[in-house]
């Protein structure tokens, strides 16, 4: 598991002093062909692609683009006419023309894992909420967080296990646990390193670099550790191995370590 560079979710595009055209197009052409057509046209006429994304919709490809048209030589109507007239375009919709900032509020709900509804908090805001609960409930909050994490870890591991089985694949418990950590890394939890010391009896080490939870831990609560993620690991490994497990945080960034390290044993 490794990270190359960050990824910004295309919910909001900020371009002060610029005119932003947001449009969505559904088509049958291979993505590379259509992308070259769109980018080539925009560059030729002085428009600039600011961001976008692609998704599969009922067997067709939908592209949503945010384009700076402030200095485009082609007018808005000409741009729309050209792009909507490209071969194999099935549907073309201008979603919005904005001044300075554009928000994609036209696609709802946000889904992941084959249609599961998602909501998104920034790590900073979520961490502040956790920190406030520590202030109010102290060690009682630690117990709540562990149970929250445990439940989430159990349910997510079961969901991934079902997806793997439906794909006619067979994963060993260690592979299922690693898949779950990869999923959490893709969701922005941390950068993970999994070390399987042995499986009988279970002895595992998980290193989490840049884990979001230590952001919640001020001086008084740092001694309680990263309880949400401790519970998450308990849920993951107990479900993957079908055993009761113990999770101990042996190193925590909130206490000055370079990364949070967890030990999982039976």
Notes on the structure:
The chain has 266 residues and is of the alpha+beta class. It folds into 2 domains: 12-108, Alpha-Beta Plaits (2-Layer Sandwich), CATH 3.30.70; 129-265, Muramoyl-pentapeptide Carboxypeptidase, domain 2. 36% of the residues lie in helices and 32% in strands. It contains 6 helices and 10 strands. The protein has helices at residues 31-44, 76-84, 123-137, 139-166, 173-186, 227-241, and strands at 12-27, 48-57, 60-68, 89-103, 110-112, 116-118, 191-199, 202-209, 246-251, 260-265. The protein has a 4-stranded antiparallel β-sheet, with helices on one face. The chain has a 4-stranded antiparallel β-sheet with strand order 7-8-10-9, covered by helices on one side. Strand 9 (246-251) and strand 10 form a beta hairpin. Helix 3 crosses helix 4, helix 4 (139-166) packs across helix 5 and helix 4 (139-166) packs parallel to helix 6 (227-241). The radius of gyration is 23 Å and the shape is elongated. The protein starts with 11 loop residues before the first strand and ends with a strand.
């Amino acid at each position: 598991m490794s990270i190359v560079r960050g990824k910004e979710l295309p919910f909001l595009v900020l371009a002060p002093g610029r005119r932003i055209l947001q449009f969505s197009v559904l088509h049958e052409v291979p993505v590379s062909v259509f992308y070259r057509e769109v980018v080539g046209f925009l560059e030729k006429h002085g428009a600039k692609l600011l961001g976008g994304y692609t998704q599969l919709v009922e067997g067709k490809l939908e592209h949503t683009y945010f384009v700076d048209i402030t200095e485009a030589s082609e007018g808005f109507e000409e741009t729309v006419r050209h792009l909507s007239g490209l071969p194999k375009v099935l549907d073309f919709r201008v979603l919005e023309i904005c001044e300075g900032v554009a928000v994609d509020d036209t696609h709802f709900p946000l889904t992941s894992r084959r249609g599961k509804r998602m909501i998104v908090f920034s790590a900073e805001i979520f961490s502040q909420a956790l920190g406030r609960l520590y202030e109010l409930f102290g060690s009682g909050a630690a117990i709540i967080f562990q149970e929250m994490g445990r439940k989430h870890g159990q349910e997510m591991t079961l969901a991934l296990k079902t997806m793997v089985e439906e794909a006619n694949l067979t994963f060993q418990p260690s592979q299922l646990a690693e898949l779950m950590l990869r999923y959490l890394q893709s969701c922005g939890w941390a950068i993970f390193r999994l070390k399987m010391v042995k499986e009988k009896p279970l002895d595992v080490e998980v290193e989490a670099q840049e884990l979001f939870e230590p952001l919640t831990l001020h001086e008084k609560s740092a001694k309680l550790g990263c309880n949400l993620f401790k519970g998450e690991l308990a849920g993951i490994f107990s479900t993957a191995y079908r055993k009761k497990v113990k999770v101990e945080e042996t190193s925590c960034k909130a206490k000055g370590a370079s990364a949070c390290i967890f030990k999982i044993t039976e």
